[in-house]
Structures are given as C-alpha cells and as structure tokens.
Amino acid sequence: MRLIVVASTALLVLPPMAMAQQAPGAQQASGTGQASGAQEAPNSQQASGGGGGETQKPLIDAPYVSGSLGWHMPLDESIDNVDTSVRRGDGFALHGAIGHQYRQWRAEAELGWYRGGAGTNDGQSDTASAMVNAYYDFDTGTGFSPFVGGGVGLGWIDYSNVNVAGLGSINDNQVGLAWQLMAGLGYSLTDALMLYGDYRWFDIANVKMETAAGYQAKFADFGSHNVELGIRYRF
Description:
The protein is α+β, with helices and mostly antiparallel strands and 235 residues long. It has one helix spanning 2-52; strands at residues 61-74, 77-79, 84-86, 88-102, 105-118, 123-137, 144-164, 168-188, 193-210, 216-234. The chain folds into 2 domains: 1-55; 61-234, Beta Barrel (Porin), CATH 2.40.160.20. The strands form 2 sheets. It has an 8-stranded antiparallel barrel. It has a two-stranded antiparallel ribbon with strand order 2-3.
C-alpha cells in the first residue's frame, strides 16, 4: 500500500518539475527570435529607404532680374514721303528687366535705352523702350544655355538737332509700336548667377516727326542691330 502511495506521488510531482526545467530554454529561444527580428527591422528599413532615397533635381521656378550693356548700331532711316534719308551713327544700348523663369521658359518686363548719332551734323538720337518679352532656353545638359526670344511694347524716340538734307533740322519726339527679336548664349557661373551675351533686332514702326519748317517727315521704321553682354540673377 505504501508503495502505491509513493508511486502515485511521483507521477503527480515529476511532470511539473520537468516542464519548469524546460521553460528557461523556451524563453531563451523566444528572446533570440525577438532579437533577430529587431536586427532585421533596421535592415528592412534601410532596404526600403534605399529604393526611395534618390533625390530629383529641382525644377527651375524662380523670379530673376537682369541687366545688359552693349553696342547700338542703328540703320539709316528713309523718309517715305521724301526721297531722302537720315544718317544714324553707332552708340550704346542699355537694358534692365525683371521676370520669372519656369523650367525652360521665361517671361519678363523690360526697360531699354539707346543712344546714337543722327543727321549730317552732330545731332543726337535717344530711344527708350518698355517691352514685354518671352524667351525659351535650350537645355544642353551643361553650363551653357542657348536661348531665343521676342517682345512687343512701346518705343519713344527723340531727335535733337538732327539735320536732314533738303528738309532742315528735326527737334521732335514721338511714340510708336515697338518689337524685337533676340538670340544669345548664357553660361551659369553659379546656380543663381548667369553671364550671357545676345544679339537683338529692335524696331519702332510708323513714326512721324516734324521739321523746324513744319514739314511732317514719315518714317516707316527705326531699326537697329544690337550686341550686348549681361548678367542674370535668379532668386
């Protein structure tokens, strides 16, 4: 009878003890699995970040200001209602503009000033312009950027002591419709600063001026070639 009691007691006590001895090992295995998972998580984040970590080149979308100075080469201007012309001499051209660039397109408002000689004596021709321009910049993948453009606006021309053969002198000023075409090449000195050179054809159409004797001289246009060097700063 005593043997039966001892055997029964052993059967009740030994299985829980065996399970208690196995529990630390299971906890170690579970802890190892958690550590491995914790180590894998950063790696998976790194792998995910590697796929989206590349940065794209930002689009050019910024305002700018520009200024240029150059050589003004006006053409001799014929008078439509008289068989004669006004001789015009070379001078300088000056331009300043404020605009906005979006990708390869630019739009700007521009003020210009031209000065040169005119007439058979030491007469002077001054021209001011207020223009709205549009440009297209060609992307070459380098620091060089060719461009073309055009503009329309108003031109004011002033003749001071300009002698015209057969008509006498002109001291008058008038305003007319102006237009221009531009082409040039820019070079990026920095991300914001560009040096450029351009050619510009500028013209004021259909202008009438009065001579000292009261005669109305009709000019079909006032055209000029202009070569300039300038700087453009993008904010």
